Amino acid sequence: MALSAPVVIAGGAAVGGKKEGAGPLRERFDTISEDSYFGQKSWEKAESVMLRQCFQLLCQKTETPANKLDFILSGDLQSQCTGSAFALRDAAVPYLGLYGACSTMGESLALGAMLIDGGAAERVCAMTCSHFCSAERQFRLPLEYGGQRTPTAQWTATAAGAVLLRKGSGCVRITHVTPGKIVDAGITDANNMGAAMAPAAWDTLRAHFKDTGREGSYYDAVITGDLGHFGHDILADLAHEEGMTFPNIFTDCGILLYSAKTQDVHSGGSGCGCSASVFAGHILKCLQEGMWHRVLFAPTGALMSTVTSQQGESIPGICHAIAIEAAEET
Amino acid sequence: MALSAPVVIAGGAAVGGKKEGAGPLRERFDTISEDSYFGQKSWEKAESVMLRQCFQLLCQKTETPANKLDFILSGDLQSQCTGSAFALRDAAVPYLGLYGACSTMGESLALGAMLIDGGAAERVCAMTCSHFCSAERQFRLPLEYGGQRTPTAQWTATAAGAVLLRKGSGCVRITHVTPGKIVDAGITDANNMGAAMAPAAWDTLRAHFKDTGREGSYYDAVITGDLGHFGHDILADLAHEEGMTFPNIFTDCGILLYSAKTQDVHSGGSGCGCSASVFAGHILKCLQEGMWHRVLFAPTGALMSTVTSQQGESIPGICHAIAIEAAEET
User: Fold this and answer.
1) Is the Cβ–Cβ distance between B179 and B110 less than 8 Å?
2) Quick check: A179 and B308 CB within 8 A?
3) Do A316 and B86 touch (CB under 8 A)?
């Protein structure tokens, strides 16, 4: 849907861990922590502290005290979304908790833009995070076990991203949002999230192009959330099957965050913090700096848990697309 | 905040389990299942089937096919909110997953109302659920262990509730929403959720009364989410401390759902499905039938997980308030 008036992305903040700081986007992060514990005693607490740092950085950078915010929209991969709740429990801002798995940054941007466009809010913080170690403990195996990873496996980013959305005029603006439907393609391999999410990504991109009458080439970049290398190839196949060109302006946050050659992340990055930090740290700057004028940002999520996988269920995917344009001259 | 135009609650559906069907609200449910497995092989799948039944009932009762919905707003207590995602994976409706713990029905009503009021949607389904057995497995001990419950413990409802929100004219309408802030009063006893959530409930009610210039007596009923008997008493104490009267029109979904005398639920009901089913099954009918004309509905949630409790953290609470009015004559 087209917003009745574009919603401004007034600024962003991105915090990352050591591995994210060793990747090609190092300079795009506001802060890199060499300590994966962020000074805490557990990885879960580390995740919350990282997200709180990111929120505080955003408030500082945009000169927006927390009490000027109408809403914080956040969520994360921790069970019961405690990464966000504990990060923001002292923020004293109305809090709307989201769960969209790794698509959460898309959901928070879409909802925030619609709330502002509709007049329910003037300023909204949209944010999310993930932490490699807390996610491994949550979803997979004890880190100490050192289990072998499959080629299709992705690396959960230790990263947080936050942006400030507001009414009014500004350079970088959300013009359309396309919230996605759940799509379950029957994939049951929890080490192949890209395959599980690619059909949902294609469903949402197709809906966006149909809704707007645009082709992919309208954009300078079309960037999915965290399909990784395998999932990105599947998305290309799905597009080709329906006769759509898939130009090389199509990429993915899971591909951008790490170096495939030197960082041993297999199929690429993942986690809520992957698309959130790549967006708030990198994509937003590309728009602000004039490198890109039109971007379609489409974070993807896998709506499963260890319990559903253990019970033999397939993995439903979801993807929300956000169209963003930067003014040529302001 | 006041909505610019009231949003209609066009209808509701409520599904419950055996214990909910043995309580004082039995006749208010559309369906009661005597089988806690709802014909499935696991409690988690049972929870999803129950929520899907509730969604289908809502579509039937309101004569609204799913493809006429702009959004489904849902969430639940299962880790990674799989209760909702799996219930709705075939719905083919844009899905916005929420996590507000037991306050989720308040969050979905508030967001749905704001999206419709702002023009982003015409029809929204707001829903949530919980299941006693999957919640016990999720948060507490194996059921087979038969652990003794403390007097302050509450009973997670096996129930789902769904309502259809839409633009236009109708009898029962949302007029104001007051999304809440996270409030952490330092309670660490995971068997005393009422005490953890009561300060958040008071914070939101106080904000609502201040925002609207109303007193509690403006309403025919002020109904919190699932504070239970202990939490309700604490809320009364907090109100009295600040000099506010706390008339007996104040009650709680956790008090209403079960019989304190005969059902052995200790401090009362809880779970996302408690306030959702009491709202969709009972409160909505009281408004439709003309018994009440003005209701403030304020679901409460505890934003913790087993991991945060095991790490010694306190329990942050949240509460979202929804003001609903029924036309005297339509």
Assistant:
1) yes
2) no
3) yes
CA-based nearest residue to B303, from A203, A120, A48, A53: A48
8-state DSSP, B64? -
Span A80-108, pLDDT tens digits: 999 999 999 999 999 999 999 999 999 99
Q: How confident is the model at residue A329 (pLDDT cuts 50, 70, 90)?
A: low
- The answer to whether A42 faces chain B, any CB pair under 8 Å, is yes
ipTM attached to this prediction:
0.96
Partner-chain contact A4 B77, CB within 8 Å: no
Q: Which residues of B touch A96 (CB under 8 A)?
A: 98, 100, 107, 110-111, 179
The per-residue pLDDT for range B222-281, each reduced to its tens digit, is 999 999 999 999 999 999 999 988 888 999 999 999 999 999 899 999 999 999 999 999
Residue A245 in this model has a pLDDT that exceeds 80: yes
A30: contact with B, CB 8 A cutoff: no
Q: B38-94: per-residue pLDDT in tens?
A: 999 999 999 999 999 999 999 999 999 999 999 999 999 999 999 999 999 999 999
Q: Do B97 and A303 touch (CB under 8 A)?
A: yes
Taking the CA of residue A182 as centre, how many other CA atoms within 13 Å lie in the half-sphere pointing to its CB?
27
Structure tokens at B140: 């507490």
Residue B97 contacts A, CB cutoff 8 Å: yes
pTM reported for the whole predicted model: 0.97
**One-letter amino acid of B182:** I
Instruction: Kindly tell me if the per-residue pLDDT of B330 is higher than 50.
Output: no
Q: What would the 3-class secondary structure string for B225-269 be?
A: CCCHHHHHHHHHHHHHHCCCCCCCCEEEHHHHCCCCCCCCCCCCE
Instruction: Tell whether B120 is within 8 A of chain A (Cβ).
Output: yes
DSSP string for residues in A162-219 = EEEEESS--SEEEEEEEPPBPB------TT-HHHHHHHHHHHHHHHHHHHHT--GGGS
A75–B contact, CB cutoff 8 A: yes
Does residue A83 belong to the interface with chain B, where contact is any CB pair within 8 Å? no
- Give per-residue pLDDT as tens, A107-146: 999 999 999 999 999 999 999 999 999 998 888 877 888 8
Per-residue model confidence as pLDDT tens digits over A169-212: 999 999 999 999 999 999 999 889 999 999 999 999 999 999 99
Helix ranges restricted to H, chain B = 18-21, 43-61, 82-87, 104-117, 132-139, 193-212, 228-241, 253-256, 272-277, 284-288, 306-310
DSSP letter (8 states) at residue B27: G
Is B98 in contact with A95 (Cβ distance < 8 A)?
A: no
B96 touches A: beta carbon within 8 Å = yes
Contacts of A305 in chain B (CB under 8 A): 78-80, 82
Contacts of B182 in chain A (CB under 8 A): 85, 88-91, 95
Which residues in chain A are contacts of B80 at CB distance < 8 A? 77, 79, 99, 101, 303-305
Query: Can you tell me whether residue B15 is helix, strand or coil?
Result: strand
